[in-house]
């Protein structure tokens, strides 16, 4: 992970709806991963969409039982 590729995004937990800043490593390109909510510790499914030029195109968050 390279700090120059970290992008901070304000999001809300899909479980407890608490807002927090999520750091996304865009150097990995488009990918899916999991992150625990810093408040309720629930597992959040993340889909990160990065363009060919390396720009963040989109971010989808979901509960562990949702299909993204």
TrEMBL record:
<dbReference type="Pfam" id="PF14255">
    <property type="entry name" value="Zn_ribbon_21"/>
</dbReference>
<dbReference type="InterPro" id="IPR025990">
    <property type="entry name" value="zinc_ribbon_bacterial"/>
</dbReference>
<protein>
    <submittedName>
        <fullName>CPXCG motif-containing cysteine-rich protein</fullName>
    </submittedName>
</protein>
């Amino acid at each position: 992970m390279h700090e120059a590729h970290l992008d901070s995004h304000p999001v809300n937990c899909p479980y407890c709806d608490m807002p927090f800043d999520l750091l996304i490593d865009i150097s990995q390109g488009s990918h899916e991963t999991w992150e625990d909510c810093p408040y309720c510790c629930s597992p959040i499914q993340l889909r990160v969409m990065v363009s060919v030029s390396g720009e963040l195109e989109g971010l989808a968050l979901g509960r562990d039982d949702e299909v993204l």
